[in-house]
Amino acid sequence: MLRPYRPSDLPELVAAVRESHRSIGRWMAWARPDFSDSDGAGWLDHCARGWQSGTAFEFGIFDRETGAFIGAAGLNGLHPVHPFCNLGYWVRSSCQGQGAASAAVRALSRHAFDRLKLARVEIVVAEGNTASLAVARRCGAHHEGLLRHRIRGTDGSAWDAHMFSLIPA
Protein backbone atom coordinates (compact mmCIF):
# COMPACT_ATOMS: atom_id res chain seq x y z
CA MET A 1 0.00 0.00 0.00
CA LEU A 2 1.32 3.44 -0.95
CA ARG A 3 0.42 6.52 1.02
CA PRO A 4 1.94 9.90 1.83
CA TYR A 5 4.06 9.91 4.95
CA ARG A 6 2.62 10.81 8.33
CA PRO A 7 4.65 12.17 11.25
CA SER A 8 3.95 8.90 13.08
CA ASP A 9 5.96 7.04 10.40
CA LEU A 10 9.21 8.52 11.69
CA PRO A 11 10.31 5.64 13.98
CA GLU A 12 9.74 2.96 11.34
CA LEU A 13 11.40 5.05 8.63
CA VAL A 14 14.50 5.51 10.77
CA ALA A 15 14.58 1.81 11.71
CA ALA A 16 14.22 0.76 8.06
CA VAL A 17 17.06 2.99 6.89
CA ARG A 18 19.36 1.77 9.66
CA GLU A 19 18.45 -1.85 8.89
CA SER A 20 19.08 -1.36 5.19
CA HIS A 21 22.24 0.72 5.04
CA ARG A 22 24.29 -2.24 3.79
CA SER A 23 21.96 -3.04 0.88
CA ILE A 24 20.94 0.46 -0.22
CA GLY A 25 23.69 2.66 1.21
CA ARG A 26 25.98 1.84 -1.68
CA TRP A 27 23.50 3.61 -3.97
CA MET A 28 21.99 6.22 -1.65
CA ALA A 29 24.40 8.30 0.43
CA TRP A 30 21.77 9.20 3.02
CA ALA A 31 21.24 5.52 3.94
CA ARG A 32 23.74 5.36 6.79
CA PRO A 33 23.86 3.21 9.93
CA ASP A 34 23.66 6.40 12.00
CA PHE A 35 20.56 7.75 10.19
CA SER A 36 18.94 9.77 12.97
CA ASP A 37 15.49 10.86 14.02
CA SER A 38 16.53 14.34 12.92
CA ASP A 39 17.50 13.00 9.47
CA GLY A 40 14.15 11.24 9.19
CA ALA A 41 12.20 14.28 10.37
CA GLY A 42 14.02 16.37 7.76
CA TRP A 43 12.99 13.89 5.07
CA LEU A 44 9.36 13.91 6.20
CA ASP A 45 9.37 17.72 6.16
CA HIS A 46 10.93 17.73 2.69
CA CYS A 47 8.23 15.33 1.48
CA ALA A 48 5.43 17.45 2.94
CA ARG A 49 6.81 20.56 1.23
CA GLY A 50 6.99 18.68 -2.09
CA TRP A 51 3.35 17.67 -1.81
CA GLN A 52 2.30 21.23 -0.88
CA SER A 53 4.15 22.78 -3.80
CA GLY A 54 3.27 20.01 -6.28
CA THR A 55 6.96 19.49 -7.09
CA ALA A 56 7.32 15.96 -5.67
CA PHE A 57 5.03 13.18 -4.55
CA GLU A 58 6.86 10.88 -2.14
CA PHE A 59 5.12 7.86 -0.65
CA GLY A 60 5.85 5.30 1.99
CA ILE A 61 5.28 1.66 1.04
CA PHE A 62 3.36 -0.16 3.77
CA ASP A 63 2.18 -3.73 4.28
CA ARG A 64 -1.54 -3.71 3.56
CA GLU A 65 -2.34 -6.14 6.40
CA THR A 66 0.01 -5.07 9.19
CA GLY A 67 0.72 -1.45 8.25
CA ALA A 68 4.46 -2.09 8.66
CA PHE A 69 6.83 0.21 6.77
CA ILE A 70 8.38 -1.62 3.79
CA GLY A 71 10.14 1.14 1.87
CA ALA A 72 9.55 4.24 -0.16
CA ALA A 73 8.85 5.37 -3.70
CA GLY A 74 8.17 8.70 -5.25
CA LEU A 75 7.70 10.90 -8.23
CA ASN A 76 10.10 13.83 -8.20
CA GLY A 77 12.01 16.03 -10.57
CA LEU A 78 8.78 17.06 -12.26
CA HIS A 79 9.85 19.16 -15.21
CA PRO A 80 8.24 22.63 -15.20
CA VAL A 81 7.76 22.73 -18.99
CA HIS A 82 7.87 19.20 -20.37
CA PRO A 83 5.49 16.57 -18.97
CA PHE A 84 7.89 14.10 -17.35
CA CYS A 85 9.34 13.18 -13.98
CA ASN A 86 11.70 10.81 -12.22
CA LEU A 87 10.49 7.76 -10.33
CA GLY A 88 12.64 6.40 -7.52
CA TYR A 89 12.25 3.57 -5.01
CA TRP A 90 13.91 1.61 -2.23
CA VAL A 91 12.84 -1.31 -0.06
CA ARG A 92 14.11 -2.18 3.41
CA SER A 93 16.45 -5.16 3.54
CA SER A 94 14.05 -7.52 5.32
CA CYS A 95 11.37 -6.99 2.64
CA GLN A 96 13.46 -7.05 -0.54
CA GLY A 97 12.65 -9.56 -3.26
CA GLN A 98 8.93 -9.72 -2.45
CA GLY A 99 7.60 -7.47 -5.23
CA ALA A 100 7.03 -4.27 -3.24
CA ALA A 101 9.22 -2.08 -5.48
CA SER A 102 7.62 -3.42 -8.66
CA ALA A 103 4.12 -2.85 -7.28
CA ALA A 104 5.10 0.70 -6.30
CA VAL A 105 6.54 1.45 -9.75
CA ARG A 106 3.37 0.22 -11.45
CA ALA A 107 1.09 2.22 -9.13
CA LEU A 108 3.15 5.42 -9.31
CA SER A 109 3.47 5.31 -13.08
CA ARG A 110 -0.33 5.01 -13.33
CA HIS A 111 -0.62 7.97 -10.95
CA ALA A 112 1.82 9.98 -13.09
CA PHE A 113 -0.13 9.30 -16.28
CA ASP A 114 -3.72 9.29 -15.03
CA ARG A 115 -3.68 11.94 -12.28
CA LEU A 116 -0.70 14.15 -13.12
CA LYS A 117 -1.20 13.86 -16.89
CA LEU A 118 2.50 13.31 -17.54
CA ALA A 119 3.69 11.85 -20.83
CA ARG A 120 6.85 10.16 -19.55
CA VAL A 121 8.29 8.69 -16.37
CA GLU A 122 12.03 8.17 -16.11
CA ILE A 123 13.81 5.66 -13.91
CA VAL A 124 17.53 6.37 -13.57
CA VAL A 125 19.56 3.50 -12.12
CA ALA A 126 23.26 3.56 -11.24
CA GLU A 127 25.43 1.19 -13.22
CA GLY A 128 25.83 -1.94 -11.11
CA ASN A 129 22.62 -1.60 -9.09
CA THR A 130 21.30 -4.97 -10.21
CA ALA A 131 18.28 -5.01 -7.90
CA SER A 132 16.93 -1.68 -9.19
CA LEU A 133 17.74 -2.64 -12.77
CA ALA A 134 15.68 -5.81 -12.32
CA VAL A 135 12.72 -3.83 -10.97
CA ALA A 136 12.73 -1.42 -13.92
CA ARG A 137 12.91 -4.30 -16.40
CA ARG A 138 10.23 -6.32 -14.58
CA CYS A 139 7.88 -3.33 -14.79
CA GLY A 140 8.27 -3.09 -18.54
CA ALA A 141 10.32 0.09 -18.57
CA HIS A 142 12.12 0.69 -21.85
CA HIS A 143 15.90 0.72 -21.53
CA GLU A 144 17.16 3.75 -23.43
CA GLY A 145 20.85 3.38 -22.73
CA LEU A 146 23.71 3.89 -20.35
CA LEU A 147 24.29 7.61 -19.77
CA ARG A 148 27.81 8.68 -18.94
CA HIS A 149 28.31 10.61 -15.70
CA ARG A 150 24.52 10.96 -15.26
CA ILE A 151 24.32 10.96 -11.44
CA ARG A 152 26.47 11.89 -8.46
CA GLY A 153 27.56 8.77 -6.67
CA THR A 154 27.75 8.17 -2.96
CA ASP A 155 31.48 8.88 -3.14
CA GLY A 156 30.85 12.31 -4.68
CA SER A 157 32.08 11.39 -8.15
CA ALA A 158 30.02 11.23 -11.34
CA TRP A 159 28.59 7.78 -12.03
CA ASP A 160 27.18 6.27 -15.18
CA ALA A 161 23.49 5.38 -15.00
CA HIS A 162 20.93 3.48 -17.02
CA MET A 163 17.97 5.46 -18.33
CA PHE A 164 14.62 3.69 -18.46
CA SER A 165 11.32 5.19 -19.47
CA LEU A 166 7.66 4.41 -19.10
CA ILE A 167 5.00 6.06 -21.25
CA PRO A 168 1.21 5.75 -21.15
CA ALA A 169 -0.14 2.61 -22.81
Can you describe this structure?
By secondary structure, this protein is α+β, with helices and mostly antiparallel strands. The chain has a domain at 2-118: 3-Layer(aba) Sandwich (Aminopeptidase). It has helices at 10-24, 37-53, 100-114, 130-138; strands at residues 2-4, 57-62, 69-76, 84-91, 120-126, 142-152, 158-166. Strands 1-2-3-4-5-7-6 form a seven-stranded mixed β-sheet, sandwiched between helices. α1 (10-24) crosses α2. It starts with a strand and ends with a strand. One of its GO terms (cellular component) is cytoplasm. This is GNAT family N-acetyltransferase. Residues 1-168 form the N-acetyltransferase domain.
Query: How are helices and strands ordered from N to C?
Result: EHHEEEHEHEE
- Average pLDDT figure: 97
Name the CATH class of the domain at 2-118.
Answer: Alpha Beta
Report the biggest beta sheet as strand number plus sense, adding barrel if it closes: 7 strands, mixed
Report the end-to-end length measured between terminal Cα atoms. 23 Å
Measured by DSSP, the beta-strand proportion falls in 25-35%
- Structure summary, number of beta strands: 7
> Per CATH, which architecture of the domain at 2-118?
3-Layer(aba) Sandwich
Keywords: Transferase
Organism: Roseateles chitinivorans
GO molecular function, one term: protein N-terminal-serine acetyltransferase activity
Pfam families: Acetyltransf_3 (PF13302)
